[in-house]
Design a protein that fits this description.
heterodimer, A: mainly alpha, B: mainly alpha, Rna Polymerase Sigma Factor, Chain: A, 11 helices, 68% helix, globular
């Protein structure tokens, strides 16, 4: 136990390793002990081998990545960046011609925008006026129908029907609807439907047969 | 990540606590702790570039700066790659770090080795990038190692046997996972010592931590890695 206490501690071994690596003289008592004690000598050898392998591996890995070529490129890059250090900042001046051209281009762009805006406004106004005109005309025509329904007033459209005798108003409107339908069916506008039209009996023909 | 605030705030808003010291303007103690008496090659070069910039000879300064880039480029790329595990990110961080160095070369003081000053800036960039990435990954699922990087690493592997290549690939993935599981401060200290070839004293100056604290973190990181990797990587 006493003998073991005299063995070198790990810290002393590491110090010895560092001293040896940095080519500094070893502490004389430590050097003496290492020469005499096989156990400490083995431990020291193990530590040295471990540290040397770590270092060798690390250096080899870094050197494989930072090859001489890469270091040369790095140096060039540093030189390039250094060229700008200590020099006053350069202010880029824009040539007047380019500025004028840019201004003219922007003015024509502004004019075209105005034209587009005016066209859009005109379209909007046209649609609005058209809609209001239609609404107004619908509003004017609506009382005639109500008048025909109620029978209180006579319009130009309902007057001949009313004059025929005592036919109810809904029968009159059905009659008008059917005649409109008949006119529409008499003249099909689609060429493809002409054949069907020829084969199909018309409302008037049916009513005549009756 | 929060435990690396010292390095994170290196050139912006340093906070001085027991373990954390002003990283931009080195204190006398820090300078004493971390600096060798004669100026190294890169530090001499940095002082020359600073003089050129102060005299307004920018073209000459840029040309000399190229030499400085050549001296530190490989090491910076290794550290950044191990930290970020993505070659594109690492590339950008390295470029940004060099640009930052050139832009702020007037604030460089030879009391510190140039390597220390530069590494602080680089680590800050890496931490910023990791932070931004973790913010992104809250919403998007990201791979640990990009497939392009993995393909490049596999292609450059000395093993021609597919089985060995596969084993090497698995080993790298295990190692990356294990390093990722380290505590933020442990990871930074381990990276700088192990992959950045820095001594604990230099790491102490870079991070603003005490040298004894750096050693403790390094020891804990190594022990944890051995535990995670089962004694062998």
């Amino acid at each position: 136990m006493i003998r073991r206490a005299h063995h070198l501690q790990e810290e002393r071994l590491l110090d010895s390793y560092l001293a040896e690596r940095n080519r500094e003289p070893l502490d004389p008592p430590v050097a003496e002990h290492l020469a005499d004690c096989a156990s400490c000598s083995t431990r020291y050898a193990e530590l040295t081998a471990f540290m040397d392998t770590l270092r060798r591996d690390g250096d080899a890995e870094a050197d494989a990545i930072f090859t001489p070529e890469r270091l040369r490129l790095q140096q060039q890059q540093i030189a390039r960046r250094l060229a700008h250090v200590g020099r006053p900042t350069r202010v880029l001046s824009f040539p007047g011609r380019i500025v004028q051209r840019t201004m003219a281009a922007s003015a024509s762009r502004t004019a075209s925008r105005w034209v587009a805006a005016a066209a859009a406004a005109g379209l909007f106004v046209g649609v609005a006026v058209g809609a209001s005109f239609q609404w107004r005309s619908q509003r004017q025509s609506r009382p005639t129908f109500f008048a025909a329904d109620s029978g209180s007033a006579r319009t130009a459209r309902t007057a001949p029907v009313a004059a025929r005798g005592s036919i109810p108003a809904d029968v009159v409107s059905d009659d008008v609807f059917l005649s409109d339908l008949e006119i529409a069916l008499e003249r099909p506008h689609t060429r493809e439907l002409l054949a069907f039209d020829a084969l199909t009996p018309h409302v008037r023909e049916i009513s005549d047969q009756r | 990540m929060s435990d690396m605030r010292t390095a994170r705030d290196a050139d912006v808003a340093p906070r001085a606590t027991d373990d954390q010291r002003d990283p931009v303007v080195p204190s006398a103690a820090a300078a004493h702790r971390g600096v060798a008496a004669p100026l190294s090659e890169d530090s001499t070069l940095a002082v020359e570039i600073r003089g050129l910039v102060e005299r307004g000879e920018m073209d000459e300064a840029r040309e000399r700066f190229g030499e400085l880039v050549t001296l530190h480029q490989r090491r910076a790329s290794r550290i950044a790659y191990q930290y970020l595990r993505d070659s594109s990110d690492a590339d950008e961080v390295v470029q940004d770090a060099f640009l930052k160095v050139f832009s702020h070369i007037a604030s460089y003081r030879e009391a510190w080795p140039f390597e220390v000053w530069f590494t602080r800036i680089l680590i800050n960039g890496c931490l910023d990038r990791r932070k931004a990435r973790s913010r992104r990954e809250r919403w998007f699922v990201g791979g640990e190692i990009s497939s392009a990087d993995e393909a490049r690493a596999s292609a450059a592997s000395p093993a021609t046997d597919p089985e060995h290549r596969l084993l090497a690939r698995e080993r790298r993935a295990r190692l990356a996972r294990a390093i990722d599981r380290l505590d933020g401060r442990q990871r930074t200290v381990f990276m700088l010592c192990h992959y950045g070839d820095s001594t604990p004293r230099e790491v102490s100056v870079m991070t603003g931590l005490k040298e004894s604290t750096v050693r403790v973190h390094l020891f804990r990181a190594a022990r944890k890695l051995r535990g995670l990797l089962g004694g062998r990587p």
